[in-house]
Structures are given as structure tokens and as C-alpha cells.
Specification:
Length: 159
């Protein structure tokens, strides 16, 4: 008599465990779908680059992608006609809610507002990036009121 009762209890226990496992997987699936919906709603804010090189007319390029490569290589998103710029000179990337500029180990270096760019740095509207002899001025939508990035020494002197 106790044998059939134990068998029924074992089957009920197994069904309970499978039900718990199914509930956990369904909950995880819903959470992942919700996160996907939230993340897909986040858009990269557009960025405009005003390009000035020697006596050529000023160009304005508009980008909406999160990574922009700048350099002499025609495969770059923002290809430059500057012999003093490297093939892959610099990169602008959008992450953590901000645009960042970084040097891609270029031969002549990249400058941000006249200062050598040695590590990834947040950029705002009206910041100027120098790649060789080419100057790129950044324009961000909705970020026009922020002042250009100041060098650390200048910021410390004003305080």
C-alpha cells in the first residue's frame, strides 16, 4: 500500500519541479523580451561633423550610427583627403549616453580643442577635432548649450 502512495508522491514532486522550471523559464523569457523592447527604443542622437581642410569648401556630414571612423582610408565612415591623416585616424563612438572621441594610434596624433587626445574623451557641441591638417567641428542635436571641453589646466585655473 505504501509503494503506490510513494510512487504518486514522486510523480507529483517531479511534476512540481517541472512546473517550477517552466515558470522560471517563462519569467526569464518575458524579462528578456521586455529588455529588448526597452533597448531597441534607445536611439543614437545624430551628430554633425563640419569638415574644414585648407582652401576646400566646408563640408557638413550627418551621422546616425553609434560608431564613426575618421581617416584617409576610403572605407572610413568619414574619409578625409588629407595626406597628413592616417588611414584609420580617429573614432567617434556613442555609449553610456555620450559621444566619445579617441585616437586610433594615428601617426601624427589627434587633437581635441588643441590638446592631444591620449585616451577616449567625451565630446560636446562645438568641440574641434584635428586629424592632420583637417579640422572637424562637432554638432550635437539638443546639446547646443554645453560649452566646448576645456583642457584640465584651464579648468583648474578658473576655480
Amino acid at each position: 500500500m505504501s509503494g503506490p502512495i510513494l510512487l504518486v508522491l514522486r510523480v507529483l514532486m517531479a511534476l512540481g519541479l517541472y512546473a517550477f522550471l517552466a515558470w522560471g523559464l517563462i519569467t526569464l523569457w518575458k524579462e528578456i523580451r521586455q529588455q529588448g523592447t526597452i533597448l531597441s527604443g534607445r536611439k543614437v542622437p545624430p551628430i554633425n561633423l563640419t569638415i574644414r581642410f585648407e582652401d576646400q569648401p566646408e563640408q557638413v556630414r550627418h551621422f546616425t550610427r553609434p560608431d564613426i571612423t575618421i581617416g584617409r582610408d576610403p572605407a572610413c565612415d568619414c574619409a578625409l583627403e588629407d595626406e597628413s591623416a592616417s588611414g584609420q585616424h580617429a573614432r567617434l563612438s556613442y555609449h553610456h549616453g555620450q559621444w566619445w572621441a579617441e585616437d586610433m594610434r594615428s601617426t601624427n596624433g589627434t587633437r581635441l580643442n588643441g590638446q592631444r587626445l591620449s585616451m577616449p574623451t567625451v565630446v560636446v557641441s562645438d568641440d574641434e577635432i584635428a586629424c592632420g591638417q583637417t579640422r572637424l567641428t562637432i554638432g550635437l542635436a539638443g546639446n547646443v548649450l554645453n560649452p566646448p571641453t576645456r583642457p584640465l589646466q584651464e579648468s583648474a585655473e578658473k576655480e
